[in-house]
Amino acid sequence: MELDANKLLHEYLPDKTNEQLGLSFNGGDRIIYVNDEVVNKLGYSSPDDIISLHPYMLSPEYQPDGQLSSIKALQLIEKANVTGKCDFDWSHQKLDKTIIKCHIYLFSLNDPRYSANMFAVWEFYDN
Question: Which InterPro entries match (predicted)?
């Protein structure tokens, strides 16, 4: 089935559809949908600037705990795939290299009706 992001988001997160969110597929491999809230918060001009990136590509090289963002992101994605969901604090890097902190709720759908199988909801902290 082709991805219908609005239908999927209303079905799985009816109370979160106004939050900053993105949607990725293949276990979190690449972002295939991102709403304007995330685009604006990260300083990009269009969703096309973010779509097809891996989520860790929007992050500084290292997280505050000293772990490489690329490795930690993959570990957290795997955790969500195994347990169905996880949430965690994360540091993203805006286009201008400013660090922005957020809390991420990561959900694994495991639903064969959709080509997408994972999505994230971001709650950005005011820095």
Answer: PAS-like_dom_sf
